[in-house]
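Appendix B. Chain record.
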Amino acid sequence: MADIAYSACCAGEVGASRVLNCAHTRLNPEASMFESNRADQSKISTMDGPPAANIGLHRDSVEASSDDRFAALSSIGGEYIGEDKLRLLLKKKIAPVCYVWFEPCDMMDIEQGIMKTIYVNKIIQAGCTVKILMADWFLQQHGMIGNDLDKIRDIGNYNIEMWKATGMNLDRVELVWFSDELNRHAVNYWPLAVDVSRKYSMEKMASYSRNRTYGPQTIPAAEIFYPCMQVAAIVCQKADIWLFSMDQRDIVMLARDYAEDINRETKPAIILHNKLPLLPEDPDMNLLRYTARTLFMDDAEAASNRKIKMAFCPPKVTVCNEFLEYIKYVIFPWFGKLELVEKKGNGSNKTYASMEDFVVDYESGNLNSEDVKLAFRKGINNILKPVRVHFISNTEAQTLYFARKLQDKIAADTLKIMLQNREIDSPWYMVDESQERSKFG
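Structure tokens predicted for this chain:
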């Protein structure tokens, strides 16, 4: 079957905007799960139940102490803004409302799929009412989508299906589409967004755009106004807690500053979860166009294995060894342990109950980096096995998988900005616009 995992994006590279980090051009595309031989489907068996689903089993928040509930939230890691407020909140409220910010992405990596599942299930375990804000409106920044909200909804539904296959406790999650909220509560939302735009300079707002599709001198007004909209979206929701990824810290702090500026009585506690680093050491391999830079939820087992084999994991080095963060943020939270077979040693099995014990052994040289890669490879493929089965065997899942595919074509307004940037950067170089447009269909 043709590679349906192909997804063309804009010309942006590393450091592109939040949305462009979700949609990637696949040069030399890896095989997708659908390329697996359907005849082998009967050989694949699902696990008895994904550990992440067990992590998320809801305990009665009345019986669980506030310390237990805080421990469940603090196990997410990262950074806590307003930690004292969070502790007090858990003592006073049985079911505080936690919003999770998520921007739909046509190419879903394991951070967005597996780690998000772990975090949401832990928040449910802490007794919170969880609402995932599907920030579909913001995906209109994408150079190949534009204002096609139907396509964005398809992409978001594909993401939800991935969470379902991964074991997220969706029965206890409310999915809130931002475009719907905008239509229902426009009278409350837009005055806030406009007020944010009045209180901050254009230079400050432009600093939140990391979209390299656009040059420093030519940037669409949308790139300046989108941060205003995001701040308004954060402030407008009736949330006790927000969960964001660490790369959203700047916009979160801006939202808190704005809330203080308008004397907002209640400001939510913020949890920022860690992000996974990129796999290769070569910086050229970490560009958005290369899929080997990270693991995707739709990767076939052979593709995952190749990426892990290429990953940089220096022996005896634990400081700035980014591969070990995959062990820390994926394997230990999911399985509660790391099982390792020493292929390079005497072939004995080792089981680590904590990241700390594992790090000590690795730093001492008792563990070989290839053995660690093998352990991670087995773990990640076990996690992804039910996902692969689901998308091979479920007709509805397959439909969503195809529906979220983007055309290899840049939107006309994005192309216009790119051409303007080229003219500004190289005014002596006359661009044949008709030829340029033909490249992109």
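Further analysis of this model is presented in Appendix C.
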